[in-house]
Amino acid sequence: MADERRIIHEISPLMSKDVLYIADRRKKEFTYPIHNHEVYELNFVENASGVRRIVGDSSEVIGNYDLVLITSPDLEHVWEQHQCVSDNIREITIQFYFHLNDDNFFGRNPFKSIHKMMDKAKKGLCFPLGAIMKVYPMLDSLSSVKDSFYAVTQFFTILYELSKCDSYTLASSSYSKIVDTDDSKQIMKVKNYINDNYRDEIRLSVLASIAGLSPSAFSRFFKLHTGKKLSDYIIDIRLGYASRMLVDTNLSISEISYDCGFNNLSNFNRIFKRKKGCTPKAFRSNYQKTRIIL
Q1: In whole angstroms, what is the distance from residue 98 CA to residue 177 CA?
Q2: Residue 225 belongs to what H/E stretch?
Q3: Among 2-6, 30-34, 91-95, whose mean pLDDT is lowest?
Q4: Does the pLDDT of residue 18 top 90, yes or no?
Q5: Euclidean distance between the first and the last CA atom of the chain, given in angstroms as a whole number
Q6: Residues 67-105: b if buried by 16+ CB within 10 A, e if exposed
Q7: Is the model more confident about 101 or about 134?
Q8: What mean pLDDT value characterizes the chain?
Q9: Distance in angstroms (rounded) separating the CA atoms of residues 156 and 154
Q10: At CA 149, angle to CA 126 and CA 46, rounded to 5?
């Protein structure tokens, strides 16, 4: 079909002994197709208001500045021209790859906040304007740093400064198939129960019992650890699975609605549109009918 877009598995120019690949360019439009890649990527876009950024099941129209960190090899993403009319777009793409684990240098205490940020970025991580402005001078000059050692240290400074800033994740956990690992054992038990039983009615009393707390204490405990009310968390989990099913299956929207724990189709449509910005039908049209995974 002429309108099909293929999800390309991009091969990075990074070689085994390289640390960074930096592409700093001016352009009039975005034409690169939806893709993923093994390497990590920090992507900065300037003067491109109206561009649509898609990361997993997240779709947002960006403003004049956009900065996203992605550290998952399976998370597809793309910046699409959409409503952008600028003819002077700047895009800085920094690709890199180094192991952040407890067994090597990057697992030491000074890198703790970077380590946590990189883990969160498996779902795609977007930074607000304040964070972007904090690192903008370093991003702006990075490609002109001639000495590779100083370029790498400047990039680590960028990562460190971003790790201290607010940010928000883009793709849902269930869509990106990422398991959160930074929670207490009680919360992990509760999350595992929700993931195993999201299709069914989930009772507060059961979850409180799993955590060993009273229902009222559990509600406060859950929000403290997740930043979400229990009802919102369950809805987000169900919507993540529904989004993946809309992409990966030919089941009807009604079937998906009930299979993901929504017992009312109109309620599912209403919640989906409020959370995702479009109807399930439009989401499926955008994500499934125009793409082939190779």
Answers
A1: 22
A2: helix 215-226
A3: 2-6
A4: no
A5: 15
A6: bbbbbbeebbbbbbbeebebeebbbbebbbbeebeeeee
A7: 134
A8: 88
A9: 5
A10: 30
Question: Pick the residue with more confidence: 6 or 181?
Answer: 6
Q: Rounded to whole angstroms, how far apart are CA atoms 90 and 85? A: 13
pLDDT at 92 over 90: yes
What is the model's pLDDT at position 293? 41
What separation in angstroms does the CA of 131 have from each of 60, 165, 177? 18, 6, 27
Question: Which tokens in the block code for residue 123?
Answer: 């779902």
Residue closest to 24 by CA, chosen among 100, 138, 147, 120: 138
Whether the per-residue pLDDT at 290 is higher than 50: the answer is no
Say which DSSP state 121 is in: G
Which tokens belong to 107?
């697992």
Supply 236's token pair: 């987000």
Give strand ranges (E) for the chain.
5-10, 20-27, 35-37, 40-46, 52-55, 58-61, 65-70, 77-80, 89-96, 125-126, 168-169, 291-293
Lowest mean pLDDT among 30-34, 65-69, 85-89, 126-130: 30-34
Within 10 A of 146 (CB to CB), how many other CB atoms are there?
6
- The reported pLDDT for the residue numbered 3 is 37
Q: What is the pLDDT of residue 182?
A: 53
Q: For residues 37 and 8, give the distance between their C-alpha atoms in angstroms, rounded to a whole number.
A: 8
Percent of the chain whose pLDDT exceeds 70:
91
Rounded Cα distance, 100 and 58, in Å: 26
In 3-state terms, what secondary structure has residue 129?
Answer: helix
DSSP classification of residue 83: T
Q: Any bridge partners for residue 66, and if so which?
A: 45
| Cα distances (Å, whole numbers) of residue 196 to 1, 173, 211, 242 | 38, 14, 16, 15
